[in-house]
Amino acid sequence: IQQQPGADLRSAYVERLAESERILVDPGYLLLTELAADQVLSYFFWDANPEVGMLVFKDYATQDAYLKRLAFFVEKKGFLGRLARDEEIASLHGWNAHDYRAEDLARFFSEAAKLDFPLNPQEKWLEGFLESTGIIVRHGSLFSPGKGAFISISQESPAYLRRLFLVHELSHAIFFTDQGYRDLVMGLWASMSREERYFWLLYLGWGRGKKVFYRNSAQKTFGKSSRVGRKNHTVHGRLWG
């Protein structure tokens, strides 16, 4: 705010923020705010971990337009690493809430550039958003991972599920952005017996080549007890306490 000499400032408000501005909020704010009738999404960044973007979508259909192809590229068996056409996934379920790390986001948009794949307008907006916030870094037409991750929820989810999804996705975001937490989870994984690891691989449905993902998913179960729980308590405490 610029104030003229001699002027007396009584009050002020922000009318608009730049697209790349990081609006830092407690995650609980996402559960209290409602999008305006003409809004399809809103975005914020986690005050306790500003590298984590948090998107709120109007409904599942809108969220799918932005993230469904990405979900299949990153996580869906039979589609991993491949850009699916709209008609291939139109009748298939994506996710009700999402979480993505910088490495996979850079792979997705780089692959689209290499293949000259026709991304939709919503995906192109997401590319620009991620680039402007430094989560992915452009090198010509390709991208490398920057710093951070993002999660999303939809206002179509019932209130109790919205809260549950938010806690769940933020715990993944901690795994993506906190090296100490990753080391702890991977240490616990390494300490398991062969039989215990087999159970988790079977339960999570991941092949042996997906180490980051099954460790990331297993940390949710580790979080119910042990030292990992203290990290997850930070998220649960803010939203449930």
User: Mean pLDDT, nearest integer?
Assistant: 83
Main sheet overview: 5 strands, mixed
- Number of helical segments with 4 or more residues: 10
Task: Enumerate the strands of the largest sheet in spatial order, edge to edge or round the barrel.
Answer: 1-2-3-7-4
- How much of the sequence lies in strands comes to 5-15%
Q: How many discrete structural domains? A: 2
Unreliable segments (pLDDT under 50, ≥5 consecutive)?
9-17
Instruction: Determine Rg (CA atoms, Å).
Output: 19 Å
N-to-C order of helices and strands: EHEEHHEHHEEEHHHHH
Decide which structural class fits the backbone: alpha/beta
Tell me, briefly, the overall form.
Answer: globular
In whole angstroms, the N-to-C terminal distance is: 36 Å
Number of strands: 7
* Helicity level: 40-55%
Written description of the protein model:
The chain has 241 residues and is an alpha/beta fold. The chain folds into two domains: 24-154, no CATH class; 178-240, no CATH class. It is 49% helix and 15% strand. Strands 1-2-3-7-4 form a five-stranded mixed sheet, sandwiched between helices. A two-stranded antiparallel sheet has the order 5-6. Helix 6 packs antiparallel against helix 10 (228-240). The two termini are 36 Å apart. The model is unreliable at 9-17 (pLDDT under 50).
Keywords:
10 helices; two-stranded antiparallel sheet; alpha/beta; 7 strands; single chain; 241 residues; 2 domains; 5-stranded mixed beta sheet
Reconstruct the topology from this structure:
Layout (H helix, E strand, L loop, with lengths): L23 E2 L3 H4 L8 E6 L2 E9 L2 H16 L10 H4 L8 E4 H14 L5 H12 L3 E4 L2 E4 L3 E6 L4 H19 L1 H12 L3 H11 L6 H12 L5 H13 L1
Parallel strand pairs: 1-2, 3-7
Antiparallel strand pairs: 2-3, 4-7, 5-6
